[in-house]
Every structure is written in structure tokens, then in C-alpha cells.
Design a protein that fits this description.
Two copies of one chain form a homodimer. Helices cover about 45% and strands about 20% of the residues of chain A. Chain A has about 300 residues and is an alpha/beta fold. The first copy, chain A, folds into two domains: about 180 residues, 3-Layer(aba) Sandwich (Rossmann fold); about 120 residues, N-(1-d-carboxylethyl)-l-norvaline Dehydrogenase, domain 2 (Orthogonal Bundle), CATH 1.10.1040.10. In chain A, strands 1, 2, 3, 4, 5, 6, 7, 8, 9 and 10 form a ten-stranded mixed beta sheet that branches. Chain A is globular, with a radius of gyration of 19 Å. Chain A starts with 5 loop residues before the first strand and ends with a helix. At the A-B interface, helix 8 and helix 12 of A face helix 8 and helix 12 of B.
Amino acid sequence: MRNNLKIGVIGTGGVGGYYGSQLQKQGFDVHYLLNSDFEYVKTHGLKVLSPNGDYSFNNVNAYQSVHEMPKCDILILALKTTSNHLLSELLPPALKDDGFVFALQNGIGIEQQIAQIVGPNRVIGGLCFICSIKKGPGVIEHQDYGWMSVGDYRENNYISGLTDRIKMIAEMFDGTGIPIDLMEDLTLARWQKLIFNIPFNGLSVVLGANTKQLTSHPDIRELAWQLMLEVGITAKSSVNRVISEDFMQDILHKTTVMQPFDPSMKQDHDANRPLEIEAIHGQVVRHAKAAGIQVPKIETLYQQLKFINDDS
Amino acid sequence: MRNNLKIGVIGTGGVGGYYGSQLQKQGFDVHYLLNSDFEYVKTHGLKVLSPNGDYSFNNVNAYQSVHEMPKCDILILALKTTSNHLLSELLPPALKDDGFVFALQNGIGIEQQIAQIVGPNRVIGGLCFICSIKKGPGVIEHQDYGWMSVGDYRENNYISGLTDRIKMIAEMFDGTGIPIDLMEDLTLARWQKLIFNIPFNGLSVVLGANTKQLTSHPDIRELAWQLMLEVGITAKSSVNRVISEDFMQDILHKTTVMQPFDPSMKQDHDANRPLEIEAIHGQVVRHAKAAGIQVPKIETLYQQLKFINDDS
């Protein structure tokens, strides 16, 4: 089976390059879409640095255009959401008729957007808890973590349960050592991840600080907590999901005690990349507005982030 | 009269040095409290650079301690509010029994704080619209503007009307060319000034931007407007003053069309001075809380500013 399944990676950066190459290591037939690094990787291959051991492939299936790629059974979508306006051009050419998209992107509304392009029964969502960056041409540096939460997409926020398709994803990663959590309810998982991303992605950029600096300050801990509560009331009002205060306190605690960390949005900001504010903060503000509730603190952060994003 | 009236300046920086020296130019007997610049000014005097003409005094009455100063009829208080914990030591020694304090400070609650030290009938408030900085030892650079709004303090936010005392202030400045607006209602004037200070002092620091950059961005214009509205509801609820939306729109418009300007809090931040967040944002948050109303956007800004203030 491993040799029969064709896997495409759309967006070979820190996330796509790491998970794609891990599957290639397991014997899967992986095909990578690259942009700026295409020439380098085509010639020199791909190298992954990791505390779990470095590895490299001298010959990789590298492509500059999706039209050159073979049709794939699974397309791992690992672009930044700031490029999602390209999805309708990128996904269909590289996807088999019975293939599906495995979306490793941040935020809310990701699967809905993909479903509009490939159909609602062809999307799986993955939430990555990983520190991994593209260090240079053809070099991925995996720094820490790596586990994924995986859930099947259903329209209108229905709960999928544990489908065969997400079990297959878990099996694919068997042997990589990467822990995979299977989620019965992708919608809940997506909103739960916002409990971290809304405060810490946002504040790390606006205040130019890492998680340790942010959580060490009493006013910012309080602000982070208030932002979490606003995510909670939005989840309840707009998608009928309850995120308990215990869950929020656990996230706040974990963020407080973990090693100082620059959230992905701060990494993007420091590297002068566009910020994923629409998929994260913008989506919550729009969900709240549609549900007729107020999220003034998230909205303030969103307004500030748009200024910073446009300014840089 | 001019020669009989003793005027003390507590805090000889951009503001105190400018207004004090303007009165000295008019023949008043002015005495300056200095800190780091004392030795320099004692020896070399005070120089003021201004688009209206430079001037200097070789000999000035300079003091390092209020205990060395003569008792004054009027004490111009021009310290940053971040030093207001010193007021109970600084004011009484230098003030005649029938003298009063003329407070040229930012924020809300200034006069109340002074009244607790010198008594409620001995405080006048002045709101300065001026760009003036201390450029170096003994050198004040007046860059632009300079007019003042002056009002008499009354306990419990009563309206004083135009008192003889504030008319005397206006007369003192006759001949300086500095426009003086006399205010019947100091409380209203103080809260109206927050319509500018809350959004623009705060956002200029958090976003590292001047007034032109801030007002040019649609989301920040909107955020500034929402912050103004929160000031308005707080003024109504806590001190029963109505600030019209026309007034707010006028401030927003004037801020948009004026030359790019770094508000005082940004100047303080850039110069690594402590920020006057308690007298401005902190006061409004506390007034709102006491009145039982929500000001989530001002509170967010206040939390962020406290982080920045503590961080630097």
C-alpha cells in the first residue's frame, strides 16, 4: 500500500517539508511543490535537521507547477493561509478524483474554503503543534514538538466521529514517532486551538514578545485570559461548541511553564512575511459579528494587527 | 504687580521651562526647581529656542530643593505625572499660605491629587497644547503650538465658572502671545482632552507610529473612534459630562490633517522615560469600573501599555 499511495505536498516549508519527508522516510511516494527553492531542491535534494536525528533525500520529486505533478491520493496543504487565494488554481490539477486534501493550516474556516473547491467530502483537517522552520534552500529545521490533531471535515459543523479516512492518516504516520490525535469533532478542535492562537499569536506581534515575556506580566496574563473568554463565547454562539474554562486555564498554564517560544505569527512578522490574521483574528471577529455578539478585545487586537501587517 | 508676584516652576522641562521663562520675560519673578540640570543652569542660565524667536536668561533663580526656594504665590506644576508620588514633599514648602498651584499636567484626577495636599481651593488646572522638549542641559526647544486652556478646580466636579483667579492667569500671559482659553468647567476640559490622549498617546506607543500613520489606516481610525466613544460614555457615567460626537469627529479630523506628530507618550517612550499611563488610561479604566461600565478597548490598550512600560 505504501508504495501505491501518492502524496503531494503543496507548500514545502517548515511544516510541509517536515511531515512530507517523514512520510517519504516511511516509503511513501511523495511529491513536493516548491516555489523559490525549486531549482536548489531539484538538484540537491531535501535535508531535515531534527533533535530526533537529521536525514536527507538526494533525489526528491520536486515541482514548480501543480500541472507537472502526478495526480495524488492525498494533498498535504501546508501553505500559509495568506496564499489561500491561490487554492482554486493549485488544488484541482494535482488531486485524483477520489483523492482528498489534508489541510495543515492555521485558523478557522480552512476546510470550508477547500470544500468549496474540491467538494465537501474530500477534506481532512490537521492541527499541527510543531516548531519547524525552513532554514535555507532545501533545509528544514525541526526544532521541537510535532504532534498533530486530525479530524474529518463535515459541512455545517456536524461531528464526523472517527472516520476510516482519519484512521488511515494515523496509520500513515505509524513508525514516524509523530503522535497523532484523532478528533471526533474537527470544529471543536479548530476553535480550541484559537484559545492559544488568538491571544499569543496576536500579542506576540503587537508587543514584540515571546510567550514567557507575555505570560510573566500580570496585565497580559489577564488580557490573554479575557481574549480566551471572548473566543469561548464566540464558539458557543456561532458554532455551538463549549470550550470549558478548565481547558482555557490549562492552555494558559502550559503556555506559562513552557520554554520561551515565538508563536508562528511572530516568526512570520520577524521574517517580514504577511501575517495570518484573516484566518485567525479576522475569522473570529466575523463569526462574532454574524452571531450578534461583541468581542471588543479580539477586535482591538485584529485592528492593531492589520495596521502592523499593512505597515511592514 | 508683576514684580511682586513670585512664581515657582516645579519641573523645569519642555513645558515648565517654556511657560515659566515666558513669564520671566514679562517681568515676573520666576524661580525654577531643577533636577539633573541644576548645576548647568545655575552657572549658564536658561535658553529657549522657538520659531517665535530664541531668547535666554544668563542668570536664573535655580534650585535643587524646594526648601531653598522662596515661598511662591503661584507654583506652576509641570512634572510628569509619573513623579506625582513626590507632590506631598514638593508642594507645601514652596507655597505661600494664600498661594495656589497651577497644574500643567496630563490626565484626569490631577487637581484632586493636589487638592489633597494643599487644600481644595488652591488649585487651578491648565491643559497645554504644545510641542516643547528639553533639548539638552538648560536648553528648551519650543517646536510648535503653545496655547493653554485654564480652569479653576472645584470639588465633586462642580463648575467654577470664570473666576478672578483664572482671569489673573490670563492677564499674566498677556503680552507673551500665548493664547489662553478660560474654561468655566475644568472637568469637562480634562475629559475632552482625553478624546485625543486616550487613542493617540496609547496607540502611538503600542504601534510605534505618529498621528499621520495612525489616522491614515482605516482600522486604526475606526479603533481611535471606538476609543473616543468609550471615553465619552465614561465621562457621562462617572462625572456627568457630555462630550458630543461632533467634538470627537472634530478631534479626529484635526488629528488627521495636522502635520505628523509624535504624541507626548510616544516621545516619553522613545526617550526611555516612564509613561503617564496611570494619569490617562488607568484613570479612565478606574472611573469606568467605579461607574459599573465596560471600556474593553481602553482596557486592552491600558494592559498593553503597562506591559510596554514595565518592559522598558
